[in-house]
Specification:
Layout lengths: L7 E2 L14 E2 L7 H8 L17 E4 L4 H9 L8 E5 L3 E2 L2 E2 L2 E4 L11 E5 L2 H11 L6 H9 L3 H5 L1
Parallel strand pairs: 1-2, 4-8
Antiparallel strand pairs: 3-4, 5-6, 7-8
Helix pairs in contact: 3-4
């Protein structure tokens, strides 16, 4: 448990890997983070975090990623507009992260300008779920990327 003077409210899921977990208070829904921060009189993690990926990566349109297009079809999602900057080894301030958004969103749940992902199932799935506005389905996106057979959906 962190001292209250060190605690932060997690308002953006990509910030999770850059803060020690004991310093974070996480709301059930990121949209509730500002209200929770106000009630607890704590800063939002996005207000205390600055950073961009350590390298440039390569921009790829979502529609040019066949596995993610297939996942979108299986989940009946539209493929998000734009794309993702894919990094062989995504790092922010030297720390490995699976995905990142920059600049930080103006409000929780609002997709920011640029989504970055490590070239990994977890990174691409999380970035895709966020960009598609289906953050709650991120685990299903991971599962479908790893095993895109209908049986995965049936459990």
């Amino acid at each position: 448990m962190a001292d209250a003077t060190d605690a932060l409210v997690l308002d953006a899921p990509w910030l999770l890997p850059v803060w020690p977990p004991e310093r974070l208070v996480a709301p059930r829904d990121h949209a509730d983070a500002p209200a929770l921060a106000e009630v607890l009189d704590l800063p939002l993690a996005s207000e205390e975090t600055a950073g961009v990926p350590d390298d440039d990566g390569e921009f790829v349109e979502w529609s040019a990623l066949p596995a993610l297009v297939e996942v979108a079809d299986l989940l009946d999602l539209p493929v998000p507009d734009g794309g993702v900057v894919v990094h062989p080894d995504l790092r922010v301030h030297g720390r490995a992260v699976p995905w990142w958004c920059e600049p930080l969103a103006d409000s929780p749940g609002t997709p920011p300008g640029t989504v970055h992902a490590a070239d990994s199932t977890e990174g691409l799935a999380r970035a895709f779920a966020w960009a598609a506005g289906r953050w709650s389905d991120r685990a299903m996106v991971v599962a479908l990327l790893e095993e895109p057979e209908p049986g995965v959906l049936l459990g």
